Predict the structure.
Amino acid sequence: CCYHNTMKVMSKLKSVSLPLLRSFCSRNVILERNNYEFIVAQTRDVDLIVKFLGEYHYKQVPTLNCLGVDYKKIAETLREETVQQIKDDFSFYVQDKATREVVGVVLAHYMNAKLKKYYADLSAMFKEDKSYYHWKMLERLYENVDVYEMYDVERILHGRIYSLKESVQRRGLGQSTVDASGLLSKRNDEKMLVVAEANGLFSNHMLDKAGYQMVSRVNYSEFEVDGYYPF
């Protein structure tokens, strides 16, 4: 499929062990590559993360940047949601060691609710916002897909956001992001289903490289809501 023209649901089963996250070091550095640190996110870091999402991430999402949305407003609206997801200890950010600039964010969290309902709730939240069709498209991805039933699991690890600034994507940080994400998705030898939506070149490339399987996709040009084709 063409990464520019589709949104995809990707999933992967993992069976590995989890070291205590707090044992990495006092600053929760998962790993270091070149001049960058991959740091486990804590709730006190939410301002850094929301700032990155509002200033960089959302404008790189194809189904948002064509709608003329307010990126910072979206990030702020989802602030509390971001805090709750950080609490699950699977999220991290990438920081330049010299400048302390945040150049990447990965948000992941546990879920035992249906993903269709999760995105239906977000669609309702943004019903009056220009970004509504983006959330509606994510909801549509799961219309005929129940990953819990498909893989016989009761909960999943949902990779909500995988984002790196374009300026650092070609410095080997894409693979490092995969490695860091793998470290945090380990959980006591249980078999875990990791699910993420790929919308954009970087997330598609990263998830493909990590061995994720595509289970659903929606073509942008064919997506419609009440006879309207927003993309």
Notes: The two ends are 17 Å apart (CA to CA). Residues 166 and 202 are 9 Å apart (CA to CA).
